[in-house]
TrEMBL record:
Name of the protein: Two-component system response regulator YesN
Domain HTH araC/xylS-type span(s) in chain numbering: 446-543
Superkingdom per UniProt: Bacteria
Keywords carried by this UniProt record: Cytoplasm, DNA-binding, Phosphoprotein, Transcription, Transcription regulation, Two-component regulatory system
UniProt-listed Pfam families: HTH_18, Response_reg
Modified residues (4-aspartylphosphate): 55
The Response regulatory domain, residue ranges: 3-120
Stored InterPro entries: CheY-like_superfamily, Homeodomain-like_sf, HptR, HTH_AraC, HTH_AraC-typ_CS, Sig_transdc_resp-reg_receiver
PROSITE patterns: HTH_ARAC_FAMILY_1 (PS00041), HTH_ARAC_FAMILY_2 (PS01124), RESPONSE_REGULATORY (PS50110)
Origin species: Paenibacillus qinlingensis
Amino acid sequence: MMNLILVEDEIAIRTRIAVTIPWEEHGIQVVGQAENGVQALELMKRKLPDIVLLDIQMPEMDGLALARQIASEWSEIKLIVLSGHEHFEYARSAMEAGVQRYLLKPAENEEVLQAVLEAAGKLSKERESRHSLSMLETKWRSHLPRLRDLFLSSWMAGAYKDWEIERHSQEVQLLLPEQGDPYTILVMEMDAPEAGTDRYRADDTDLLNFALHSISFELFDGDNTYVFQDDRGATVMLLAGNEEESDGDLQLRAGFYAARVQSTVRDCLKASLSVGISGTGRCRFGGADLYRQACAALSQRILYGGGVVYPFHENNSLVSVENVDEIHVREAVSSDERLLEISIEKGDEPTAVETVLRLTHSAVNRSGTVEEVKTEVLLLVHLLLGIIKRRGWSVQEIAGTDYNTIQNVQMLQSREQIDHFFKRLVRNITKFGRQSNNLSGNKLIQDVLNMIDNELDNDISLYNVAERLFINHSYLSRLFKYETGQLFSSYVLERRMTKAKQLLNEGAQVQEAARQVGYTNTGFFSKLFLKHWGILPSGLKRS
């Protein structure tokens, strides 16, 4: 039902229009009548009409002035003029004042009714359209966080060109880092629940990762930090700095953010998570490259365990950036297949052999025909070839005499042959991996060893070295132990005692030798020297 007000100083015309036209049959209700513009304005405030039918020539305030006032305060109201002036100038002025129809007196009832119904129809369509747009805008805004997540996830996956990144970021109202400003990417994942614990089951991983995203979002989303989930469910944080912030400062801040999330998750969920941190980028559209770096850093969890923040390092990344897509595939394989790869990574031959035999027996047992057995064997061979390929090793060099069997698994005719073949191949892969690791070493640890040797006279600690290299001290501790077989503090003590012994043998005084290996207290130095070498520095024979 539309509400109509009549504004006409001639009572006869006003009454005819109000009484003789069947308004209610057409969904129109006359809610008020006024004889001049002043009365009409007072009535408007109380009745809030949808349509106003008004005369032009009226006392106190004419129709054109009233029309302008109504258009100014109630722009949605439709105005229809009923006038005795047929001059074009009146009609033009009325249209400029917002009038929809201009009727000449004496207008018949049918003409007046038709003009009002046209105004009502137009107003109804405008309201429907406006309501629809309002609903769409409200719905769009409610979906905006999800749209941002989809954009960020697709950007990290490398789905966009530079111009598409610019356009889509504007569409979801997301401010990208300015060109030249530093930013880094953190990828965070919950560690698998420990075996034997009752708090979480293995299939709770998705729930835990959702909780991780919620905690991270609550802690840090906003203020040039965006938190979202990638297509694997991992929580990703884009941390932006400014042009005055150095790469090292941003990395330290990223490490602090990661530690804060770890602490909160540990307190709230009683669980652990691992974090991979990319290097620092300054190319506005380079997010996908940094994301791959963070994933590559996180993949080191396979070797060093969970609960650690892993920074990306060109020289110590154990899984190349190019293999991140394969990492995603690896994380989706069965637990035994993953255990097999981890055992090979660690050089744990007994576990690797035991696991591959368990896989072969399971594959054979679930096969119902000879062809199914051969298919399962072929799939397991491809799994091992993938492990070899990801490390850039030579299949022919590793396989040796079994290379022909790899090319033609049909040669394996019995369970015993299958078992022996896979045992030999896994042993060869594990042995080759150990030899490669020994030859390649680790550039980061070599840098640390050089730093220790060059600075024995300074206060050198694990925390100090980790901070200078912009890496997490827990990660450095594990990596150092893995590469050298010694604790950091034990190695430093050994190097200091060796250097002190050399200095004393070359004729240095005890106090001078102590100073050159970082000790200002000669008595304390002497006690350490005696404990290490079984003799006091003063009693050492000098040559």
